Amino acid sequence: MKTTINTPSKTYDIIIDKLPKLNFDRKVAVITNHKIAGLHINYLTNNLSAKELHIITLPDGEEYKNWQNIEFILDRLFDAKFDRNSLLIAFGGGVVGDMTGFAASIFLRGVDFIQIPTTLLAMVDSSVGGKTGINNKYGKNLIGSFYQPNAVYIDTHFLSTLPKREFAAGMAEIIKMAVMFDKDFFEKIKNNSISLEEMIKRAVELKADVVNQDEKEKGIRSVLNYGHTFGHVIENLTNYKTFLHGEAVAIGMVMANELSKILGYLSENEAEEIKQVLKKNNLPIDFKIENIEEFYNHFFLDKKTSNNKIKFIIPEKIGKYKIIDDIDKNIILKVLKKFEK
Amino acid sequence: MKTTINTPSKTYDIIIDKLPKLNFDRKVAVITNHKIAGLHINYLTNNLSAKELHIITLPDGEEYKNWQNIEFILDRLFDAKFDRNSLLIAFGGGVVGDMTGFAASIFLRGVDFIQIPTTLLAMVDSSVGGKTGINNKYGKNLIGSFYQPNAVYIDTHFLSTLPKREFAAGMAEIIKMAVMFDKDFFEKIKNNSISLEEMIKRAVELKADVVNQDEKEKGIRSVLNYGHTFGHVIENLTNYKTFLHGEAVAIGMVMANELSKILGYLSENEAEEIKQVLKKNNLPIDFKIENIEEFYNHFFLDKKTSNNKIKFIIPEKIGKYKIIDDIDKNIILKVLKKFEK
């Protein structure tokens, strides 16, 4: 199965299948982390040959997604005399993918790179669409670039070792896509009548469709932030320690649904249906807010909050999104009150 | 006078004229250095208004073109709560332009920026075409991006304070463009029958034409490296201390011309003509090589040397370039021998 991404800057395929034999007549660096390397590096290298193959291993964890580790990657490439014709391969989850993409975008002003995601979240979300980045003391993904890979290879083999919570976090993004764009897809997830590969493929197709329309997130791409506007605040308030990203997004979707209900769009039934699908997929659906004013103020720390307008993405109904901005503070507080401790 | 750049990633104008009044209804940061700020900040701010105006001042010099100063710029932007709608203005020479462009390309995955170059070199070369970058311990401009500005404003007012050597260094790039692409332009420079503005405009037009064909330097854009392949080695061997970039390029052009002569293209007369134009414009035309083997080996440190093939750009005749690669080492040594101490 494959899907094509077609942006102004690049056209490339996302291949969902057993990893094919990859042979490169150029220098290749696989960038991964210790954990993934320990579990899966043989599976990869058995399928990979290159003129020269280097493995660059990073520590595992979001806290290492910083400039120091980008410099570490770049220095290894310079040491190995990589040139503009060389290739990087991101082999891991979102952290490895975002960092490899960023390194590829700035090494000698840009070299080719390939994504081989190993987590469900990276497969359906971060590996698709060319967002790269690192964190700094001001926040997450605040430094980075839009830089598309040359190909994405999605092989569900790697999911066999993925912890259950991380699998669920990936499901959150899949459910998000279904609620935003495709009722039929949502029904299939709800009824368990779709295979994992088919589910990944549909999620990727839907994301590709959005990215093809708006590579640089000037408009429609922001729709992918359903659940994220609330979710980012939850992650922030809990210092990114309590919830995985996908878990915070799941709660954020429940909150966005409440907003939609108050505004008269989503029905009580539909909101409940979404909640149950999230729950069935081992995702949290509730969060107790200590202080709703504080929660509200956190919206303005988001890099997507331009000109002090908060943009909310809500389902008008299952399968149809709606973008809301310039919304009255009191209405938001009313939503938050439902989650108050 | 204006010229338009039209690349796959952006279309924008290069305006060669007295700086117009610029009014922005968004946050603006002017990035400059202490020297330029001292000389010209009033001239700029008298023509500039913004919703919020910040001036970020860097130390003056190539040695500050590094990640530490990019981080300094980014931190100031985060402190001032700049968002995706904010604008950066590069106000200075090539160092300021390259750093501002790089910072703009990675701040929140890319914000708008404008170039207001203050040196002749930046006006005709570095501000046009979207190359951004910084140096590191491995070399110059090894980290960076291709990222186009939204506009370039070229006002020769700023050249009134430019040191004579730096003016000459800018002339080297102008003469380079003439020799590569436009015999008539070369004749005008030789005969002193063209105004400074017209000269800048023609050089920018010629560069724009190349960039429009090959934004990411996959092919034809490498033609702009006439004089640079030899020049980079000269800069390297003298630790970037003896010559300004344009001066090294001037010597590099003389060397490339010798190569062209040996290969049977450029006539002795034409080579001499170019030499005299460089000389008349206060540029060096000779360099004594200590060790020609060492000089030769330095070609392979250049980031443009891919797959161990050195690419030389030479004039086939004045006004017509030729790209040469896969050239026998002995021929290059023969050229270098002419410059041996």
From TrEMBL, chains A, B:
Keywords: Amino-acid biosynthesis, Aromatic amino acid biosynthesis, Cobalt, Cytoplasm, Lyase, Metal-binding, NAD, Nucleotide-binding, Zinc. Zn(2+) binds at residues 173, 228, 245. Residues 170-305 form the 3-dehydroquinate synthase C-terminal domain. Its EC number is 4.2.3.4. Pfam families: DHQ_synthase, DHQS_C. It catalyses: 7-phospho-2-dehydro-3-deoxy-D-arabino-heptonate = 3-dehydroquinate + phosphate. NAD(+) binds at residues 60-65, 94-98, 118-119, 131, 140, 158-161. Residues 56-168 form the 3-dehydroquinate synthase N-terminal domain. One of its GO terms (molecular function) is 3-dehydroquinate synthase activity. Belongs to the sugar phosphate cyclases superfamily. Dehydroquinate synthase family. This is 3-dehydroquinate synthase. The lineage of its organism: Bacteria, Pseudomonadati, Campylobacterota, Epsilonproteobacteria, Nautiliales. The gene is aroB.
